[in-house]
């Protein structure tokens, strides 16, 4: 599903976030990327989602080489990948419902069908009752779940989450982890990053430890 | 269907943006409308002057002077040749005797003329021309001077040439002002759309993150710019019509004292459509430029 071959990423200014990472995530697999902040976790996830391009090496997603895709094709590919952002990236000028509906509006979904899918996604993350709420009125955990609802509303084959349990208290974090485990159980490929040992333990999945932009060790589930 | 839905969605988005800030939208459209109305009013005035000038007896006259030894047969042949020329509206023959009598009656040269032993004036044809085009008058003049027993051809088309030149000058001034103000409209729309893009920066960023292409991001802004241009074009049309009516009422009061009919000639339907369509195109151009510049900046951020 996702294959990294000797992928390096150097940001303008010289920061080398990844140095030759090779990694494979099989279809339906769940993988947790761990490591300290600055280890390159976020960069790895962004490259896998086509949010950034590799400096060298190849990133294959569903058989497509992201490096050779045009900007517009990369954007269309992003519609098939659900991404949960560390900083949520919610729009604060519109309701929870409209935030989740954004990806469907972009792909030009019929209104009724879109509304049905939005409510299904909100229901899955337990926010159906808050569809009219504005994001500022939601707690940190609820905002995180709203971001997850937006990521799954297109029914993606791959779900990528950057520190989904960061800044959440233990109980909230457990609920979020269980949510991802449930997506994994219905066949969605899940790739997430975390520095929270408790979450990784609870996920019981393969883990890839990054340090200074390289794979430090891999451990099976 | 998806394509249609995306476009309808973008139109709805653009309309909402205009409606959300009605005062700001009205002011922008008024500014654009006034900018467009200025050259339109100037063009209407030019058109009206042109129409009035066309109503005047502006055909120039060409005088064809015969040689003194021209025989009646020569006169007939030349007259036939003059009448055969399509640009000649009327041909009037002035005989040497007539010309002398006229000269004697209208000037104080009677004594001098009486002292001459023969009439020094030639037979002549006065041709009223159908055209004011200097080129065609010059062509007729050249052709006629080659006719047998024609001594001289004089055309007083200088004034008509001058009139044509003034008309060209006027048209060029209107065109220059029109182009400058059209440029101003594109720049103003670009600025307005740029402000819109900046206030919607978050929305654009998030949209791109969840799969919007550059075209998806651009679409509502393009409709917004085109709509603003369209409304500005309609406003300019209304403003120009008001001004034309105002000037026209004053002009019609003047009409009885002149033979020529003075009236304001407004834009015809095709010209109106061109104005509104052109304004929409300018809005589109401005929006495209603004979004292209801002979008490039976003992708540079990432």
Question: Which descriptors apply to this entry?
Answer:
heterodimer, A: alpha/beta, B: 302 residues, alpha+beta
Number of helices of chain B: 10
What is the average per-residue confidence, as pLDDT of chain B, rounded to a whole number?
83
SSE string of chain B: HHEHEHHEHEHHHH
**Structural class, from helix and strand content of chain B?**
alpha+beta
Structural class of chain A: alpha/beta
The largest interface is:
A-B, 26 and 21 residues
Mean pLDDT of chain A: 91
For the secondary structure, the number of strands of chain B is 4
Described by its quaternary structure, the protein is: heterodimer
- Strand fraction of chain B: 5-15%
C-alpha termini separation of chain B: 33 Å
Largest sheet of chain A: 6 strands, mixed
What does this structure look like?
The complex is a heterodimer of chains A (221) and B (302). With 221 residues, chain A is an alpha/beta fold. In chain A, 35% of the residues lie in helices and 27% in strands. Chain A has 7 helices and 10 strands. Chain A has helices spanning 41-48, 71-78, 96-106, 111-124, 140-152, 170-185, 197-203, and strands at 2-10, 16-25, 30-34, 56-61, 64-65, 81-84, 158-162, 189-194, 206-211, 214-219. In chain A, the strands form 2 sheets. In chain A, strands 6-7-8-3-9-10 form a 6-stranded mixed sheet, sandwiched between helices. Chain A has a 4-stranded antiparallel sheet with strand order 2-1-4-5, with helices on one face. In chain A, strand 1 (2-10) and strand 2 (16-25) form a beta hairpin. In chain A, helix 4 packs across helix 5. The longest helix of chain A is centred in the C-terminal third of the chain and has 16 residues, at 170-185. Chain A starts with a strand and ends with a strand. The model of chain A has no long low-confidence stretch (mean pLDDT 91). Chain B has helices at residues 2-20, 22-55, 72-84, 96-106, 110-115, 134-145, 158-199, 201-209, 214-254, 269-301; strands spanning 61-66, 88-94, 124-129, 150-155. Chain B is of the alpha+beta class and 302 residues long. In chain B, helix 2 (22-55) packs antiparallel against helix 7. Chain B is built from 10 helices and 4 strands. A 4-stranded antiparallel sheet of chain B has the order 2-3-1-4. Chain B is elongated and about 105 Å long. The longest helix of chain B has 42 residues, at 158-199. Chain A binds chain B through residues 51-52, 71-72, 75-79, 83, 85, 89-93, 102-103, 105-110, 150, 154, and chain B through 2-3, 5-6, 9, 202-203, 205-216, 299, 302.
């Amino acid at each position: 599903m996702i294959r990294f071959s000797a992928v390096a990423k150097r940001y303008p200014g010289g920061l080398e976030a990844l140095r030759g990472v090779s990694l494979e995530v099989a279809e339906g697999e769940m993988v947790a990327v761990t490591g300290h902040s600055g280890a390159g976790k976020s960069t790895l996830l962004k490259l896998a989602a086509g949010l950034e391009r590799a400096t060298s090496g190849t990133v294959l997603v569903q058989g497509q080489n992201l490096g050779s895709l045009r900007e517009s094709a990369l954007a269309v590919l992003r519609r098939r990948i659900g991404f949960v952002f560390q900083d949520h990236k919610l729009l604060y000028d519109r309701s929870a419902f409209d935030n989740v509906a954004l990806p469907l509006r972009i792909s030009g979904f019929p209104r009724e069908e879109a509304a049905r899918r939005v409510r299904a996604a909100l229901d899955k993350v337990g926010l159906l009752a808050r569809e009219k709420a504005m994001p500022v009125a939601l707690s940190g955990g609820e905002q995180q779940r709203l971001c997850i609802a937006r990521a799954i509303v297109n029914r993606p084959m791959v779900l990528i989450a950057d520190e989904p349990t960061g800044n959440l208290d233990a109980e909230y974090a457990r609920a979020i982890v269980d949510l991802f485990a449930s997506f994994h159980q219905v066949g969605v490929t899940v790739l997430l990053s975390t520095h929270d040992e408790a979450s990784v333990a609870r996920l019981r999945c393969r883990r890839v430890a990054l340090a200074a932009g390289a794979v430090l060790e891999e451990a099976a589930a | 269907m998806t394509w249609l839905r995306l476009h309808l969605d973008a139109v709805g988005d653009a309309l909402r943006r205009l409606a959300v800030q009605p005062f700001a939208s009205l002011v922008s459209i008024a500014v654009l409308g006034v900018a467009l109305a200025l050259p339109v009013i100037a063009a209407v005035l030019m058109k009206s002057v042109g129409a009035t000038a066309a109503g005047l007896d502006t055909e120039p006259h060409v005088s064809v002077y015969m040689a003194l030894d021209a025989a009646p047969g020569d006169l007939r042949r030349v007259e036939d040749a003059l009448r055969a020329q399509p640009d000649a509206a009327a041909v009037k023959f002035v005989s040497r005797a007539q010309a002398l009598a006229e000269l004697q009656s209208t000037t104080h040269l009677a004594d001098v003329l009486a002292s001459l032993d023969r009439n020094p004036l030639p037979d002549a044809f006065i041709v009223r021309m159908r055209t004011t085009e200097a080129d065609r008058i010059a062509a007729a003049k050249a052709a006629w001077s080659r006719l047998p027993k024609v001594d001289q051809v004089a055309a007083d088309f200088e004034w008509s040439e001058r009139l044509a030149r003034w008309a060209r000058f006027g048209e060029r001034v209107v065109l220059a002002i029109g182009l400058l103000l059209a440029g101003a409209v594109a720049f103003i729309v670009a600025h307005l759309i740029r402000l819109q893009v900046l206030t919607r920066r978050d929305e654009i960023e998030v949209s791109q993150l969840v799969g919007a292409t550059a075209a998806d991001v651009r679409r509502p802004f393009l409709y917004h710019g085109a709509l603003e241009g369209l409304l500005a074009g309609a406003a300019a049309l209304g403003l120009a019509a008001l001004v034309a009516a105002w000037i026209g009422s004053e002009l019609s009061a003047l009409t009885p004292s002149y033979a020529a009919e003075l009236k304001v000639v407004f834009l015809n339907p095709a010209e109106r459509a061109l104005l509104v369509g052109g304004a929409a195109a300018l809005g589109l151009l401005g929006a495209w430029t603004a979004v292209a510049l801002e979008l490039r900046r976003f992708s540079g951020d990432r």
